[in-house]
């Protein structure tokens, strides 16, 4: 019942059940001394408090707390993994599944016959800024950082988004074909940022990962000479019309990008139709953008991008449309996917999180899935610190970790198949960023000290990326009564059940999980915590 639970859970289990309180306390005495409660890996978190509500874990070339390998407990036992505002970071516990209910008022019921979408994966973006920051560390610290994300002892990121040429998180403006009038792309060439920074780091990450990484490419802007504005930044679209030479050349630009990365043995799972196409329709937009309406995006895919990829060696590379706010759904999807010529080339729909509070998930994601169930939904960008009212890096902000977990659970419960964070690493100022659009990141680098800090958002991501393997299928979960808990349940490819639980409230919440296949799991969600529960069914 309380064997080797994380201490925050252990001291509270059965607190509301008088007859079992003494047993729980006695068992918790054993828990206090159990090594499993001291941390998730061979090294403990070197906690640093910067006054933003919780702690970061400091890492260097020789020391970093590690998620470590995760072994599925035998049938009849369950594994818990806890991160909290109070300071737990992927703290593990293990307990016994019961045959009878504990009588807890709140029960989360697993409904395995209700089957939904399968998981693709979770990850972050290798921007120029991220690569610059990682490379600013010593060789040992660089490897340590990449292991935290990609190695088996890390948090198992499987998706890496790669900007095609510059974005705001670059130190300069550039594309791969800046020579005016180069419609044949004769002078197309990757940048030094690609060859010297991003590609070597992606190669290292791939070498560390036990599985192939799913690379996802997004372009911010076409070369200025192809655009109505004659500039990379601000409002502007491609000259001409779909099927015309600018649109055709822009499609071939994608093919050339894939070819050049292919020379470094890097292949892409997917490309998007372009980052935030609505930004290129805005007056006075401050950084790189390329405007599309849903109609021009539809026709460009149908007439140019789709045929170009299909005729190349990259016919199996997926095309993800939109790559913008979910507020634009379902309208954008209706316009593009109702056209059979465009729809035949498209595989998925990419969404960003920045306007999610204005976009009810059922009206946007849910409706889109029900109309177009054959197209996957995928989170292609998110970050904290983007809002002008709450700008930049906040070392140790637990509120931001909760924002991540809340949005991920909400997305997963509305058919999204994965969620991609923005920059893999930023500096203490939230950059570099040529337009000073500074934000936060799960890892923050302090070059002067040759250390990096793992933010609460890093651990928030870990609860999903580490435990929801590719191919995991979401299943039903219902609650016996209303509560503050947010949850989502999955059956993994190894048959294990994974329940993700977020408690954003000020109170600990005791509850039990009922899986009809195995029995009852007594548990407790501490105040302001993220909890992963895993158990085998056979």
Automatic annotation (TrEMBL):
Topology in the lipid bilayer: Peripheral membrane protein
Enzyme class, broadest EC rank: hydrolase
UniProt main location, coarse: membrane
A Gene Ontology molecular function term of the record: signaling receptor binding
InterPro entries per the UniProt record, alphabetical: GH, GH30_C, Glyco_hydro_30, Glyco_hydro_30_TIM-barrel
Entry coiled-coil feature ranges: none
SUPFAM superfamilies: (Trans)glycosidases, Glycosyl hydrolase domain
Keywords per UniProt: Glycosidase, Hydrolase, Lipid metabolism, Signal, Sphingolipid metabolism
Metabolic or biological pathway, per its Swiss-Prot or TrEMBL entry: Sphingolipid metabolism; Steroid metabolism; cholesterol metabolism; Lipid metabolism
One Pfam family named in its UniProt record: Glyco_hydro_30C
Domain Glycosyl hydrolase family 30 TIM-barrel: residue ranges: 119-468
Domain Glycosyl hydrolase family 30 beta sandwich per the UniProt entry, residue ranges: 471-533
Reactions the enzyme catalyzes: a beta-D-glucosyl-(1<->1')-N-acylsphing-4-enine + cholesterol = cholesteryl 3-beta-D-glucoside + an N-acylsphing-4-enine; cholesteryl 3-beta-D-glucoside + H2O = cholesterol + D-glucose; a beta-D-xylosyl-(1<->1')-N-acylsphing-4-enine + cholesterol = cholesteryl 3-beta-D-xyloside + an N-acylsphing-4-enine; beta-D-glucosyl-(1<->1)-N-octadecanoylsphing-4-enine + cholesterol = cholesteryl 3-beta-D-glucoside + N-octadecanoylsphing-4-enine
Top-level taxon of the source organism: Eukaryota
EC number: 3.2.1.45
One of the GO BP terms on file: lysosome organization
Signal peptide: 1-39
GO CC, one annotated term: lysosomal membrane
Cellular compartment(s): Lysosome membrane
Family the entry assigns: Belongs to the glycosyl hydrolase 30 family.
Identification of the protein by name: Glucosylceramidase
Species per Swiss-Prot/TrEMBL record: Clupea harengus (Atlantic herring)
């Amino acid at each position: 019942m309380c064997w080797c639970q994380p201490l925050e859970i252990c001291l509270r289990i059965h607190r509301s059940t008088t007859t079992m309180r003494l047993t729980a306390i006695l068992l918790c005495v054993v828990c206090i001394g159990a090594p499993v409660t001291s941390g998730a890996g061979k090294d403990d978190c070197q906690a640093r408090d910067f006054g933003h509500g919780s702690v970061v874990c400091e890492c260097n070339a020789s020391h970093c707390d590690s998620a470590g390998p995760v072994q599925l407990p035998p049938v009849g036992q369950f594994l818990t993994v806890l991160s909290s505002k109070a300071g737990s970071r992927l703290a593990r516990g293990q307990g016994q599944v019961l045959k009878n209910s504990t009588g807890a008022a709140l029960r989360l019921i697993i409904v395995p016959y209700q089957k939904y979408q399968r998981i693709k994966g979770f990850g972050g973006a290798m921007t120029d800024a991220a690569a610059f920051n990682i490379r600013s560390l010593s060789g040992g610290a660089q490897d340590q950082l990449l292991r935290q994300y990609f190695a088996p002892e890390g948090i198992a990121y499987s998706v890496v988004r790669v900007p095609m040429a510059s974005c705001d998180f670059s130190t300069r403006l550039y594309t791969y074909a800046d020579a005016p009038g180069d419609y044949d792309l004769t002078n197309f060439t990757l940048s030094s940022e690609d060859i010297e920074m991003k590609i070597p780091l992606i190669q290292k990450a791939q070498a560390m990962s036990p599985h192939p990484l799913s690379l996802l490419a997004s372009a911010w802007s076409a070369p200025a000479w192809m655009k109505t504005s004659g500039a990379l930044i601000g409002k502007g679209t491609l000259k001409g019309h779909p099927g015309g030479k600018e649109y055709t050349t822009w499609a071939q630009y994608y093919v050339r990008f894939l070819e050049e990365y292919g020379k470094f043995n890097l292949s892409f799972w997917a490309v998007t139709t372009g980052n935030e196409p609505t930004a290129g329709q805005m007056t006075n937009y401050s950084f790189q953008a390329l405007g599309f309406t849903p109609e021009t995006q539809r026709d460009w895919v149908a007439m140019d991008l789709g045929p170009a990829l299909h005729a190349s060696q990259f016919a199996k590379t997926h095309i993800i449309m939109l790559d913008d706010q979910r507020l634009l759904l379902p309208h954008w999807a209706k316009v593009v996917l109702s056209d059979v010529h465009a729809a035949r080339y498209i595989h998925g729909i990419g969404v960003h999180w920045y306007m999610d509070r204005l976009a009810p998930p059922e009206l946007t994601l849910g409706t889109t899935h029900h109309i177009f169930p054959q197209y996957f939904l995928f989170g292609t960008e998110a970050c904290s610190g983007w809002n002008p009212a709450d700008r930049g890096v906040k070392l140790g902000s637990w509120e931001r970790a909760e924002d991540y977990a809340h949005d991920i659970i909400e997305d997963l419960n509305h058919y999204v198949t994965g969620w991609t964070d923005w920059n893999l690493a930023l500096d203490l100022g939230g950059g570099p960023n040529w337009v000073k659009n500074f934000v936060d990141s799960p890892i923050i680098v302090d070059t002067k000290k040759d250390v990096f800090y793992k933010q609460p958002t890093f651990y928030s991501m870990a609860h999903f990326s580490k435990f929801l393997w590719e191919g995991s299928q979401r299943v039903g979960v219902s609650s016996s009564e209303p509560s503050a808990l947010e949850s989502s349940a999955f059956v993994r490819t190894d048959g294990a059940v994974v329940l993700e639980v977020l408690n954003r409230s000020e109170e600990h919440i005791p509850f039990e999980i009922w899986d009809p296949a195995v029995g009852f799991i007594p548990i407790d969600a501490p105040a302001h915590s993220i909890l992963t529960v895993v158990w085998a069914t056979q």
